[in-house]
Design brief:
The protein is an alpha+beta fold. It has helices at 84-96, 148-156, 163-177; strands spanning 5-14, 18-26, 32-40, 43-48, 55-62, 67-71, 74-76, 98-110, 119-130, 141-146. The protein is elongated.
Length: 179
């Protein structure tokens, strides 16, 4: 298989969450193309399961969609070297007001492979202990418990479209409840 060769990567925009680049590449037929690339330092997410089997979801406004969404708790790494499990534990408490002494790796996913390198690792959190939400100043989040079957129905009805949430809920359902 012939290789694609990157000739240049030019930073177009440096943001708080992403950096946008213009890549110039040579494709196997010899043509030169320009591709957009979004660099992301990574993120972690959590499926918090209560003792009675409910999943704690976060309801929050998403500017890109101009509406509220229902998602699993998640957030970006503080730096690219931060352990994903540490980020997951921090985001769990910040967004839901719960801690867990039992975080288990569930899956890893890439959100948009065509133009972004974002990687998210998802963890299952059980043995939850109530603490207090520690939201960022630009966050407003409601925490809502759901039955997993209700979430699966919401996914197939198109009410939950967030890729990390879809993948995580379906993976949890398949691995732990639907054997």
């Amino acid at each position: 298989m012939e290789e694609i060769r990157r000739i240049n990567r030019e930073l177009v925009y440096k943001g708080h969450i992403i950096d946008m680049y213009k890549d110039t590449v040579e494709i196997p037929n010899g043509n030169v193309a320009e591709w957009d690339f979004i660099g992301h330092k990574g993120a972690a997410a959590v499926i918090p399961v209560t003792n009675d089997g409910k999943i704690l979801m976060v309801r929050q406004y998403r500017n890109a969609l101009d509406r509220y969404t229902v998602e699993i708790p998640a957030g970006g790494l503080e730096n690219k070297d931060e352990p994903m499990i540490k980020c997951a534990a921090r985001e769990l408490e910040e967004e839901t007001g719960y801690k867990s002494d039992n975080l288990e790796f569930l899956l890893s996913l890439r959100t948009t492979v065509a133009f972004c390198n974002e990687k998210i690792e998802v963890f299952l959190a059980t043995n939850l202990k109530k603490t207090k939400q520690h939201l960022d100043e630009d966050e407003y989040i409601d925490v809502v418990p759901y039955d997993v079957e209700e979430l699966v129905d919401m996914i197939y009805a198109g009410k939950i479209e967030d890729s990390k949430t879809v993948a995580a809920v379906l993976a949890y359902y398949a691995k732990y409840l639907h054997k």
